[in-house]
Amino acid sequence: MLVTLATACGGSSASPVPGPGASPSPSGGWLSTAGNRIVTADGATWMGRGVNLPDTRSCGACVLEPPNVAEVKRRIDEVVDQWGANFLRLLLESYPAPDGKAQWRGVLDDPTYLASLREIVAYATSKRDVYVMLSLWHDPSIGPTGWPTSDTNRVWQRLASTFAGDPRVLFGVASEPAANFDGAQDAQVWTAMNDAVAAIRAAEDGAGARHHIVAVQGTRQWARVLDYYVQNPIRAGGGANVVYETHVYDSADVFQSRFVGPSRTIPVIIGEFGPIDQPGVARMTTSDCARLMDQADALQVPYLGWTFHMRCPPDLLEDHSNGGCGVGMPLRPTAWGALLRDHLLTFRR
Question: Is the pTM of this model over 0.70?
């Protein structure tokens, strides 16, 4: 989530998509891409709406305590059953050294952590029509510029092999390629993302599995900008089942460049958005958030609000943790959370 969070813890146009308010066809099966759309097994446009959900490390809040999978499940129950979400971006969080943490290793070094992710995903996807995007949000393999590296590709090969048979799982390569404001490094970011997709495809092929949806992040400004991909879509695996993730912390006057325009050519996911006022970096009001959801609904562009947490701003939950991990605390929405919840509930079938 931009600077605050980091420091705190090719296809042609497809046929017209359903209008605003249209519900996706129920499907427990695989998603794929078709032109600029994400589609279900029966060819209907898939529309995901939901939140960013931290794993057991909980945006740094719970790293001093043993992992508590039951707490993550409790939050899944709340956001799916009570808020109406059908799409979760599960934030995978690991560190290069313990520094006093009880849980910190990544999936290559901590079998218990990998098992916890399997349990969390299985629980979430056991709910009707819920999809989970695994995102390497905070991982020591990610380079200082926010790009995936060869070490990241090894992490993804482990994850792709582990979740090879899970039809309702998506993969999100990294979190936020930073800076690169003038786009001079777009080609290098593209290469890093393309290599990551190739590594995932190799692992899936080795497991005899279908190809999952893989999200690559915008090349500039903390994943905001998708322009380079519009002209240069990912080629690994033939470019199939690749979607393009933007993080929108901007006023409504730039929605056209952030997701409206790109979504007419390539399949887009809004991986993060939320109200924030960070001078010189990001400014988005709750009114902008409401307009984003309305526009994304009309375009059938999936979106994920940041974040289902109490100290990982912009927060969807009030902080009733007394400064602690938050296990068992009341899950009461902030004003931002109530706005998102009420919007999601309008689509509950």
Answer: yes
Q: What is the pLDDT of residue 280?
A: 81
Instruction: State whether the Cα torsion 329-6-81-339 is positive or negative.
Output: positive
Tokens 């989970």 -> residue: 132
Rounded CA-CA distance 78/345 in Å is: 12
Concatenated DSSP letters for 252-311?
GGGHIIIIITGGGTS-EEEEEE--EEETTTEEE-HHHHHHHHHHHHHHT--EEES-SSSS
Task: List the structure tokens of 293.
Answer: 């959801």
What's the pLDDT band for 349 if we cut at 50, 70, 90?
low
36 touches 265 (CB < 8 A): yes
CB-based contacts of 38, cutoff 8 Å, min separation 6: 31, 32, 45, 46, 48, 213, 243, 267, 269, 302
Q: What is the pLDDT at residue 8?
A: 37
Judge if the upstream peptide bond of residue 307 is cis by omega within 30 degrees of 0.
yes
Domain boundaries, the chain: 2-6+47-345
Residue 16 has pLDDT above 80, yes or no: no
Asked, as a colleague might, if the bond just before 314 is cis with ω within 30 of 0, I would say: yes
Measure the CA–CA gap between 148 and 191, rounded to whole angstroms.
10
* 114/95 Cα distance (integer angstroms): 14
What distance in Å separates the CA atoms of residue 155 and residue 136, rounded to the nearest whole number?
9
Mean pLDDT, residues 254-271 taken together: 98
Looking at residue 88, its pLDDT comes to 99
Cite the beta strand spans of the chain per DSSP E: 32-34, 37-39, 49-54, 87-93, 131-138, 169-172, 214-217, 242-248, 268-273, 276-278, 282-284, 303-305
Residue 312 to residue 332: CA distance in whole angstroms: 15
* 2-6+47-345 placed in CATH 1.10.10.10: no
